[in-house]
Amino acid sequence: MTKGKLSLIVASLAVATGLFWARMLISPPISEAATNAGVDPGQITRNASTTLPTFDSIYQRHTGVLDKLP
């Protein structure tokens, strides 16, 4: 590759980079936040099963795992 071709490639890259950043500074892309309907936590709470065991009753089952044997 000759010195002239290499300088032409570097100059082209510099011009493309300059044009890109000029475009970003003059008129940057605009993004809009959209609301997501998603899931209503209140509805999940109202539809939850009432027959589930409490945390304490589940936890009590597993507390004796590391206890010393008599």
Mean of all residue-level pLDDT scores: 81
Distance between the termini: 85 Å
Shape: elongated
Question: SSE order in H/E notation?
Answer: HHH
Tell me the Rg in angstroms. 32 Å
Q: Estimate percent helicity.
A: 55-70%
Strand content: under 5%
Major sheet description: none
The total count of strands amounts to 0
Show unreliable segments: none
Structural class: mainly alpha
The number of helices is 3
What does this structure look like?
It is a single chain. The chain is mainly alpha-helical. It has a domain of 27 residues. Helices cover 56% and strands 0% of the residues. The chain contains three helices and no strands. The N and C termini lie far apart (85 Å). The mean pLDDT is 81.
Fold topology:
Elements: H1 3-26, H2 41-47, H3 55-62
In short:
Helices cover 56% and strands 0% of the residues.
Kindly list the characteristics that best describe this protein.
single chain; 70 residues; mainly alpha; 3 helices
